[in-house]
Design goal:
The complex is a heterodimer of chains A (95) and B (333).
Chain A (H helix, E strand, L loop, with lengths): L7 E7 L7 E7 L3 H12 L7 E6 L11 H5 L23
Antiparallel strand pairs in A: 1-2, 1-3
Chain B lengths: L4 H4 L10 H12 L12 H20 L1 H5 L8 H26 L5 H9 L16 H22 L5 H31 L1 H20 L11 H6 L7 H18 L10 E3 L4 E3 L5 H8 L6 H14 L1 H25 L1
Antiparallel strand pairs in B: 1-2
Helix pairs in contact in B: 3-5, 5-8, 7-8, 7-9, 7-11, 8-9
Chain lengths: 95, 333
């Protein structure tokens, strides 16, 4: 088997109007048009989608898992970013 | 199950892993964290998953063959539409699983080659022939029933992409089992001849279905490590027992007899006890000598070879269009 590899595409589906596109898997296809058709067949057999995005997998830039701490831990100490940090008497009520 | 051949092989010895990293990895597993493709993982964990997920994918793909044969022979349009949708789902499930395996660094082409060369295994169940229409019902009820039993705990597997693929598969697979049982129910209520056909299908599919869960726990060397890694949540025998407990009353509801003289209800434990599986037959079918092994592999090879020109043409077309676009861009600048 001396075949060329068929490119990989990541598939994003928007399920209902108003919801964001969500990653649901990947497909192999020679070009963008065929990737869209394959994504439709593989990921929307039961009316799951109203819109499909396909992105060449090689074009995705991902954060490095080993930098998880550096990237995300600083927010853990910033509890003043949450509404529950502030004390308001109950009778004032919420907006 | 769909990966029953895993249990039959011994773990290969690999280079020792860094003890500290191993401990940190196991701590993440114990804390029920999901392991994602770019995270550090022991080489043996990766290898086990590539084998398990790809065997599972191959099983879905080969699993289309015994049923595909009956699409053009379905007795009604309703049954034909259901069977067509089910077989299409199996193709889809195979693709979700191949995608999950690929996140571990193996290419689709390698996986396909492993299946077509006969190096990779798939579930032994698909090496049995589908002789009558009742077999289609029996496959839905028993084979998909057994698959659901196995796949529900896999939704909580420690490897994220596999668990997510399983959630999708489980959502879709319930219809497979139900259409099978409904079909058998209709046959059993129709005439004595049709009911006899269903009994014959049960006689042939019962034991191979029990074999789907793999070797007994006493002979399954891989189980302990897979359980520790939370790839597996229940042992082969635990899942097999669950399956028997669920299906025996369903067989009785259809008015059928399970082909096992030793089958008996144990009131004390609340479980159905059953006879010994023919493990020689199991080993034979896994090793490639079942009733349909050669036929299944030949069918896959033929499909792959006959489709080669389509893959080549699609790639050539994509390259040509990309080259034209590039040339037009240069001309415009």
């Amino acid at each position: 088997m001396t075949e060329k590899t068929t490119p990989l595409w990541e598939v994003f589906i928007r399920s209902r109007t108003g919801m964001a596109h969500r990653h649901c898997g990947s497909v192999h296809a020679a070009d963008a048009e065929m990737a869209l058709q394959a994504a439709r067949d593989v990921y929307t057999r039961r009316g799951e989608g109203l819109s499909i995005w396909v992105v060449p997998s090689a074009e995705i830039i991902a954060s490095d898992p080993s930098e998880k701490g550096m990237l995300f831990e600083p927010t853990a100490s910033k509890i003043y970013r949450h509404p529950t940090f502030y004390e308001i008497p109950e009778d004032v009520g919420n907006m | 199950m769909y990966t029953q051949a895993l249990n039959a092989r011994e773990t290969e010895t690999s280079a020792p892993e860094d003890a500290e990293r191993l401990a940190a990895f196991q701590a993440r597993i114990d804390a029920e964290e999901k392991i994602e493709p770019n995270d550090w993982m022991p080489a043996a964990y990766r290898k086990t998953l590539v084998r398990q997920i790809s065997q599972h994918a191959h099983s879905e793909i080969v699993g289309m063959l015994p049923e595909g044969n009956w699409i053009s022979r379905a007795p009604t349009l309703k049954r034909k539409a259901a069977l067509l949708a089910k077989v299409q789902d199996e193709g889809g499930h195979g693709l979700y699983l191949y995608s999950a395996a690929e996140t571990l660094g193996v290419s689709r082409e390698e996986l396909t080659e492993q299946l077509l060369s006969g190096r990779a295994k798939y579930s032994s169940i698909f090496n049995y022939p589908t002789l009558t229409w009742a077999d289609i019902g029996a496959i839905g009820w028993l084979v998909d029933g057994a698959a659901i039993m196995n796949q529900i705990p896999l939704c909580r597997c420690s490897f994220g992409p596999y668990a997510r693929a399983m959630i999708r598969v489980c959502k879709e697979e319930s219809f497979h089992q139900r259409q099978g049982y409904e079909l058998l129910l209709e046959m059993c209520r129709s005439s004595e001849e049709q009911k006899a056909m269903v009994q014959d299908a049960l006689d042939r599919w019962w034991w191979p279905s029990l074999m789907m869960f793999g070797p007994s726990d006493t002979h399954s060397t891989h189980s302990a490590q897979s359980m520790a890694w939370k790839i597996k949540r229940f042992t082969n025998d635990e899942l097999r027992q669950k399956f028997v407990d669920a299906t025996v009353p369903q067989a009785h509801f259809l008015g059928l007899t399970i082909p096992d003289e030793k089958l008996a209800f144990d009131a004390e434990s609340g479980h159905w006890t059953f006879g010994e599986i023919d493990w020689d037959e199991f080993s034979r079918v896994i090793a490639g000598d079942g009733p349909c092994n050669r036929e299944r592999l030949t069918a896959r090879q033929k499909a792959h070879e006959a489709g080669a020109w389509v893959r080549e043409a699609a790639l050539a077309h994509a390259e040509k269009r990309a080259a034209r676009r590039a040339a037009a861009q240069v001309a415009a600048e």
